[in-house]
Design a protein that fits this description.
three-stranded antiparallel β-sheet, two-stranded antiparallel ribbon, 5 strands, about 45% helix, extended
Length: about 100
């Protein structure tokens, strides 16, 4: 079963490992996410050593199709965030995580 990881899950893990208060842990998680978003706004790229790179890209508008009704619609131009994991993170995942 797939499970999303929430900010609270990350804060709880920090709380267990470091013994900080839950509020402080949640503040740390929120600050990290805010730093990533701010970095994307300012620089369009955020690199986290031994983790990966977030990039902000602009997608142009295009013609799309509703698969159910086959109706054509214009998909507006928009920003998207891409993530490319570091070689170290990929290596760890490939060597230590079994496919389910």
């Amino acid at each position: 079963m797939k499970k999303n990881i929430t900010r609270d899950d990350i804060a709880n893990a920090i709380n267990v490992d470091f013994g900080l208060s839950k509020k402080d842990c949640l503040d740390i998680v929120n600050d990290i996410i805010d730093c990533i978003i701010l970095g994307l706004e300012n620089n369009k790229i955020v690199k986290i050593h031994n983790f990966g790179t977030f990039k902000l890209k602009r997608k142009q508008s295009r013609l799309g199709r509703n698969p159910k009704t086959k109706e054509e619609v214009i998909i507006k131009d928009r920003n998207v965030i891409t993530f490319k994991p570091s070689k170290g993170a990929l290596s760890y995942l490939n060597n230590n995580i079994k496919n389910e």
